[in-house]
Amino acid sequence: MNVETLYDYMKTIHPSLNETAFLVVLNRVLRRISKKAKNYSYSATINTVVDQREYELPSGVIQVYRVDYDGEKITEISEAQVKDTDVS
Prior knowledge:
Elements: H1 3-13, H2 19-37, E1 68-69, E2 72-73, H3 79-84
Antiparallel strand pairs: 1-2
């Protein structure tokens, strides 16, 4: 079944459903499925700045699986450990 067929089927159940609303809901569902299956991946680069501790993630990020810095994997730490870290 492709997206067009699914949309046509949904229109028979919900005649007032417009295409935009359908696609928004479908994208949300697909992201949930992907998150559970861990098939959805995205790679991004964030430029670091001296004395900056927090950074905004790119839009669409659901979960961070790995962080590398200068080609090396960063070991994961808990939120409590982050809060306890002295950055001075």
